[in-house]
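Please check this chain.
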Amino acid sequence: MVNLSAARYGKDNIRVYKVHRDEQAGTQDVVEMTVGVLLQGDIETSYTQADNSVVVATDTIKNTVYVLAKQHPVSPPELFGSIVASHFVETYQQIHSAQAKIIVHKWTRMTVEGKPHPHSFLRDGADTRNVDVVATEGKGIDIRSAIANLLVLKSTGSAFHGFSRDEYTTLSEVSDRILSTDVDCGWAWDTFTTLKEVEAAIGKFNEAWNDAREITIGTFAKDESASVQNTMYKMCEQILSAVPMVKAVDYSLPNKHYFEIGKYSKKISDYSADFGTDLSWHKGLKNTGKDAEVYAPQSNPNGLIQCTVSR
């Protein structure tokens, strides 16, 4: 005997672009998003009995997102995600939970001849503003906001030593190193009972995103980092202090390694190891320790450090 223990479906990778024209000011603002929607509810028979009467077609989901984008503001994305998710729960009696994931792609207004251009933009980074909204019948709206793919690097001010050592350890302890990572930072809001509560908090979302970004960048730059673990914990503490409506903050930070040329020239089972060599083979060049200037960026394997800090 088997049973369907979990099921959901929806439409993914819905590309949305919206322009707002301020005729009085003669300027335009643009937002570009990628939206995904997943639905759950009394849909079991579509799987077990080929009963499509309970299915809201994924093409309908796509069309609905476009219509809602026309009828409502798409900024901040926390509000638009709540509008989209709530729509499906409120409109279809068989749908009891809806998830809306939104990735906001950067378009930054150009500065031309020292002035902001009224309708021209550039993408000045791969980092995105993300939201994940789940509206559940009888429970409310849960929102996780996030910064993703924010690539940062500092050339000094990071150390890593005093870690556990055993017969498998080849890593040298360092008091100064390059620190680089792709920041993925998220913060979960207290549950909103209704869509009206989300609308009432509209001013908080942009403020929290700006605070989280500034705290992340500022702490990364200024902290004399003993480890990625300790630095990310400090970031979490500060965001929780700055945004009272947030109940938890999480980070996922992969290490982007930069190895001194020569020092990591040999491999053991694909893992770089310190054999103490440098570039002295070429006319006595020194390129390790305090003399290191040239490094080889590494793609993998890489460390991955994660944490969640809650109230």
